[in-house]
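Look over what follows to help learners.
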Amino acid sequence: MSTRAAAEADDHEETSDDRVIGVESAPEPPGGARAWLVWGVAVGVYFLAMFHRNGLSVAALETQERFHVGPALLSVLPMLQLVVYVLLQVPAGILADRVGPRRTLLFGLAAMTCGVALFALAPNVQAAVAGRVLIGLGDAVTFINVIRLAALWFPRRRYALVSALTGTAGGLGQIASVGPLSAALHGPGWVAAFLGSAAVTAVMTLLVLLVVADSPTGPPGRRGTRQPVALRASVAEAFCRSGPRAGMAHHAAVMAPYTMLAVLWGYPFLVEGVGLTPAAAGAAMTALGAGTLWIAPTLGAVVGRRPGIRRPFATVFATVLSAGWITVVVWPGGPPPAPVSLAVLTVSSAGAMIAPSLSFDFARDGVPAHRTGVVSSVVNMSGFTTTVVATVAAGLILQAGAGYQLAFLPITFTTVGASALLITQLWRSPRG
């Protein structure tokens, strides 16, 4: 038996009863150089989306000064963008399945280009908010369509690796925004910095037009001939099949904790809760984000060769992560000391990195490649909805005068609960 056949048989027996074996009638795409080229251009769009998403944090002080707003209103902007992202996940999945990734990515690029340009030239805070909403709109439709291109262009065994590399590219986009954008803001200035970002995004639009195609069998822009599945049936597919259910539980469990910290509460927790200096806290958050980037592609490559490891790995990791957050909230006398807290944050950061490797790979089980848009969007929404709820809940608890241990009870509850659902889904018997 070939290595590929053995891996598929192993996964069919151990991990899922429907890992697309016998589900897709069309032959698997061959992958190859053209697939990597198409994905490379598409993932460049995701890189830019994450660059723009993180741009507000880099320009926070300049934003306050330029628009004469306080910290309270400033903090609304990233949360508003995240809410737009969550609300548009299912529509993004519908566009991916009905319109195709190429056209949807072009729409997203147009929205981001206009949004960044508007933010650069905004005469008041209202226009700036409108610009951030447009950026959020473009951001919301990007990741799902890059993932769908991976499903359409690469063989099944490569999906975990390509999903992991997609997530890693997004992380690099976040990191890359800090140096260039900060230098541009302090050099040429606000307008030049953001108009330059808009120009780069417009150039990426031309690359997508020239290179990206929905189908490996056609020229750029050609879509397959499959009839789209009704929205109700697509959503039902996500909730009725075991693979997508495991993907939703996994994404909520392992992606949300560190995303909540990175969006808002990580730095304040390390300074006010743990007692690190501001410089040390900033260095720790940067190191955690950059130092775990290698985990996702490594795991994705391993899963592609031995898909049977997904279930035990996900079980052990979710259990360790849950135990870490329980430790944070029950530690006597206040938050744990710095070494313990940083250990939990390191595991959480690793979880955010590996989430694409496994969450969307689970979601592919039993779902044909041409119907992955809505399924992937529901999985993505599960993690980001959990993030929004936990982030807002922590803010309300802190506003009421409580400490970080109580503020982190919601994220601990969601992590433990989602982990329990994941383990139940993965190990239920019989599979079906």
